[in-house]
Structure formats: structure tokens, C-alpha cells
Request: fold
Amino acid sequence: MTIYPVIMCGGAGSRLWPASRPGRPKQFLALTGKHSLFQNTVLRVAPLADDGRVIVVAGAGHADAVAAQLAEVGAEAIVLLEPEARDSGPAMAAAAAFIEALDPDGVAAIVASDHHIPDAGAFRDAVGIAADEAANGRIVTLGVTPTSPSSAYGYICPSGPGLSPVSRFVEKPDPETAARYLAEGHLWNSGNFIVAARTLMEELVLHAPGIAGQVRASLPDHGETGPVIRLGDAFRSAPKISIDYAVMEKSDRTSVLPVGFAWSDVGAWDSVMETGEGQAGAHIAVDSDHCLVRVPEGMVAATLGVSNIAVIVEPDAVLVCALDRAQQVKTVVDRIKIEAPAHADIPERRETAPFARFGDWMRTAALPLWTTLGVHPDGAFVEALTLEGRPRETRRRARVQSRQIFVLCRAGALGWGGPWRALAETGLDRFLDGYLRPDGAVRNALNPDGSLLDDTAVLYEQAFALLALATAHAAGVRPGRCEAQARILLDRLEAERLSAGGWRESGDHPFQANANMHLFEAAQAWAARGVDDRWNGIADAVAELALTRLIDAKGGFLREFFDADWRPAPGEDGRLVEPGHQFEWSWLLSRHALARGDDRAMAAAKRLYGHGLRGIDPRHEVAVDQLDDALKVRSDGARLWPQTEWLRAALAMAGLAEGNAREERLAEAGKAMRALNRYLRPNGTWRDKLQGDGGFVEEPAPASSLYHIAGAFDEVCEATRNGLVADGPVDLA
Reply:
């Protein structure tokens, strides 16, 4: 028997306004200590799972909060996301159906995300006892021995002492009835259920077949096991009903296990007070007694001559109420919805027009800066600018020169009115005159004075030279010279193709995905020019290499380093997976699929995009640099360029999707845009490296990043033209 902890992460917690609101419900608040109620629940139930992973059922709108809070406590989970709330019946059914498909004999320990249970060991012991009974086909609920005749909870009438069948469930009573229930030995209904997944599904089929059918239809049909599973649209059609009404009050298989550990559903401010851990922030009390005071950091609250009150301060709202009337706060919320609706939910603090801001930054800051202070008098481009806009360089790599030519030509194509053509022509002439070896290959780097530094012909540099030449050719910048040099490099590529597929790189990692990826991009650009059909052959060859060798056949993710037979390199090198490259390959393969009608490439592109999302750090909402081949974070640093590739791929996937899937991709694109904007500085420079602690490394802005930024901007402009992005004009005109 395997226990699968399931955390139900729904509910609004309106009686805990203004701290708890629909956009930030109570389970995500630290009401009883340093962790949120949800985090405490995760830590409490995770030891019940064989692999430490819990199952979380949450609304799609809370996906980010769930991910961020899991990351904060170092926990893992399979998250089932509801497209809309349908109450606890369908939510629990989704978890049960998922577990049943995974393990027909699995037992679900279904718990609320927002309860306070200080004795985690006693709770797990009770679940263990209940699980043994559940394995025999019973639905076991934990009944808490009451400490007072509370009207805040529902009650369970057991049929006998100890673990016994349920006689009946009863709703929240009035105070007089609650006192009678206490005297008669009734138990508080904790809302925690331990049940075999198969048993719950059988009872749903019997008592609520509409739920069972729609929920099963909403699960993925290809055995997806997480970490995030979005339930399909069929879930929206499931009857909206609680599990109590759907099953518990009708089933003859329910049992209750009395438990004596401390428990609270933390449903109102009086129950927060009773935990003894609800105070937050600075409070000066003068002749005040039994007051719950919560204020944000940086503020202080003072009370004088008052008692038995709650003072809850939020940046936009304050609640002062008598603790003995805390259960009635919902009536205040109902008034607020009518008279001050802006304060019924948490204020929107996200940037509202991130794409328009990006366009303004490109037009008014980045391009003007890098086409003035970023260009040497001889037409060469600067390697880096300090954050104050001063040149810094110890070398001039070919990739910077070629990438800046690409940026200038694309800026011209998008309507920028600056001196892009003159700079592109001068830069291209300087590049072709200074970086070509006698054999026609592109050398790696020059010294700042223009003398030779490194004469190596690196595949990476050949690829970017070809991309620059193709972009300049399309812009009408020295087209004859571009075509002639591209033909020389194409002849070299044809001669250097490996028998095992792909092309070899110089240096310590000769068999790598990255250099071949950029060759793929360059080949696509030249194929679009229509001057030599051999470019289609190069693009097809790299696509085939990716689909058959670079992408893991089982996992669908793409590795970085390989041996001569294109098998994963030994050791840690072969385990490296970069989220940014999952996105970049996804974008390139989707373009290739559309150009060549390749369904296999399109399927791979979509899967790679999903794997790239595994690298989004929910704490900082950025794409990290490295994962391992288990798709777990290997390095939580986050450079700028993965954000651009996330943005570009998200918009490309949105253009391919329809309906809810398109909206999801666009939401992800919005997150990627906001992530990228964090790195961009008002003067046109940027920060390149975000550290795991949320701080940026203080260093000059590398010019090479502008290629990535411009590529993402290109995709934003395309999405704007196609009506996918509509937060303001996004262009360079």
C-alpha cells in the first residue's frame, strides 16, 4: 500500500480579509509562524509519500503561488491545475482519478491546505491508522475531539468508540446545538479524508457519475505525471458540488477516526489569535489586552486601552474588529465588494504594459546608446559598456561584430529611423576585411587595436557570421559580398559534415548542441533568401541531428554535450540541460516545422518548450541557467539571455495554439516579458546575471546580449502584428 498525500489548495478565506483575498487566499499567508499554512501542510504530509512528493490540487490562477511556496521550502509536488473552481467534489475526484491511473491500489490522504496542526507526528500517525482501514475499502475521515462547543465547524456523529462507521454528518450548528453535540460525543469534521483512490472513484460513479466522467475526461490521455498538469476543459462541465454532498452524506462506506491532537481550520481572526502565533510586525500595547495585531514590515501599530480586538493592516486596507465577532467579517467583505470593490482583492502590482515598455526601451534607449557609444571610430563594435555607458573590452570577438550587424539590419527592417544602414555597411566591411582568414573561414577574435588575437575557425563564429550575412543580404546591405562569402562558408560546411551527423566544434566540447543550433538558425535564414538550395539541406541535417541524437529519446529534453557518436557525454557534462536552450531549440524547430511541413519537429518543439518551463524559478519568476537530466535545478543563477528565449518561444507557441492553450502561452509570454524587463536599465544597458539570492552581479553589459534581446523583440513585433500582443504599440517606427 502506497500513501499519496493530496493537498486541496482551494478556498478564498474571506473571513480573514484584508490579509486573505481571492488573489492571495489564506493558505498562502504566514498566519501561524514563519511559513504559510500551505507550506506547513506540505512539510507535515510530505514524509507520508514514498518519494517525498505530494499532489496539490489548485486553481490555475494560483499556479505561481504554489510553485513559489514549494520552492521556498525545498519541496516537490505534482500540481493538478483546475481551469475553474468546481468545489471540492471535482477537485478531490481529479486527484483520485490521477492516483488510480498511476497506482490502482494507491491510498490518498486528502488534506486541506489551510489548517493548523502543530503536532505533525501525531497527524501522520493517525493517517497511517486510517490508511490501513482505507485499504479495505473504507472512506476514513479524521474527527477531532472538540475542546469547546464551537459553531464554526461541522460535526460528525460516530456510531461507536474508536475507529467506527459514521452515523451521520451534520452542518455547523448554533451555539446551543453545538453544546449538545459536545455532550453527546460528536467530533469536529476536520475535512481530512483517507481513502483508496479506487474506492472514491467507485463511490463517485455510484453517487455522482457526472463528476467521475468529466474528471476522467479532463486528465491527460498520454500518461503525463507532472510536475504540472493542467486539467482539460471537460473539468469545467463537472457538477459544482462539495464532496460532502456528492459522496460523504450518501455513502455507506464512511468511517471516522477520533483524533486528539490540536487542530484549527484558522477560518477567522479569532482562531488565528487562539493559535498563539498570529502576531506580525511591530505592536506597542498600552493598557491593551488580548489583541491580535498584524502590520507590514516597516510600520508600527499602537493600541491604548482596548482589548479583545483584531487590528489587521495591509498596504491598501485596514480591519479593526472585535475578536468575538471575527466570524462575521464576511459581511464586511460583502459591503466592500459593493462600496469599495478595488479593495476586495489584492491590488494589481504587476507592470500593466510590459511589451510597450520593451518597445519604448528599444527605440529610445538601447538602439541610440549602442549605435553611438557602442561603436568605435573604425566601424567596429564595442564588446561591452559599463552601466554608465563607457566602453570596456580586452578583445574583439567575431561574434560581437556579427551579432551587432544582425541587430542593425533587423532594426532597419522593423522601421527604426536611426543610422542603421550606414553602421551596418561600415561594420560589415570592417568585419569582412578584418576577420576572414586566407582560406575564407572566420577567425575567432582580434585585439582591441585590430591585431590578430585568435585565428581559430570556431563553428560558433562561422554560424553567427552566416546569420549576419543573411540578415544584411535581406536588408540590401552589400548583398553581393554577403552572398559570395556565404557561399565560401557553405562549401566549407559541406566538406566538414561529420559522418555521424552534425558539425564538430573547436575546444573542449567538440560535439555539442549549441554551435549546431546557431548553424541551424543561420541555415534557416539563408534558406529563406532562396539563393542556394543547399541551405535547406544544412537546416534539414541539423534538425535531424536534434530529433535523433540531441533530444533525449525518452525524456524529450535536449542535452548540451555528447561524444563522437552523439551519445551523452560521460559525467556531469552529459547531464547538463539548459532551459534557455530548450526554448531556443523549440523556437527554431517550430520555424523549421512550419517551413518544411515536419510534424515530428513540431511535436518536439512543443515538448521542448514544456521542458524549458521546468527551469522557471518561481521565487524570482525567471528562467535559470542550468538543470540536470532529471530536470532539477543545477544552478539557480539566471542570465539575461534565457529570458529572451523564453519570451520568443512562448510567443511562438501562442501563435500555434488556440483557445485556452493560447491564453496560457500568452500569460507565460507576459511573465517572460516582465522577467526580461527586470534586467533592462533605463539608459539602454542591462544587467546580465541574476544570482540565486535575487541580486544582480555588478559588471558591464555585454554587447553580445543585444542579439538575444533583438531576437525577442522581433517576435514581440510579429505577435503584435498578429494581434497576440495588445498592450500598446510595439515597434521601432
Remarks:
- The longest strand covers residues 187-196.
